[in-house]
Predict the structure.
Amino acid sequence: MEELHSETPQADPEPAPKIIGLTGGIGSGKTTVAHYIEEFGFPVYYSDDRAKAIVNESEELRKKIKELLGEESYDKDGLYDRKFVGGKVFNDKELLHQLNEIIHPAVRIDFENWVKKQTKYLVFKETALLFELKLNRQCYKSLLVTAEDNIRIKRVMDRDHKTYREVESVMEKQMSEKDKIKMADCIIYNNTNLEELKEQTEQVIFNIE
């Protein structure tokens, strides 16, 4: 007996979108570039924002963070106390590593679920720690937004009303721009103005193959 074959061809599954890791140090303009990317029609996953939400949404994370850092990790309203936590881990690399080991796997799962819902051929994962956590290995390409140190410091001083030394102290704890530039596949230099930044962003993202 002959086998029956459907004459309706099966549609090929949609190819998975290519993941572009978007990163930049404090004052680089990374978030501005992310907004331009969205204007050009591509979705951006904001890792830092999602991490802030997940630590409040997940009871499992809440329990683990309190065990690591104490009950004060959450305020009287039950919300994650970023100021308290930041003070605990700022000068303690081991404690920061342990905190990251709690939060980052949850963010990774959240990101994977987000990617499944996207329809564009490129999606962007915005994260400050792309190279530090070796997340670039999970991306098709890495995109670095960078600027000269003195420009970055002035931007943060103006934006956050911090002193030169306060901003410099934060920058000293981040991977050097020189090392990031060596590792990045694509680079946007944000040393001039917003018009130039937007033009660079457009040129870079539409040239990703």
Remarks:
- The beta strands are 18-23, 44-46, 122-126, 141-146, 186-189.
- The chain is about 50% helix and 10% strand.
- The chain has a mean pLDDT of 92.
- Residues 35 and 186 are 17 Å apart (CA to CA).
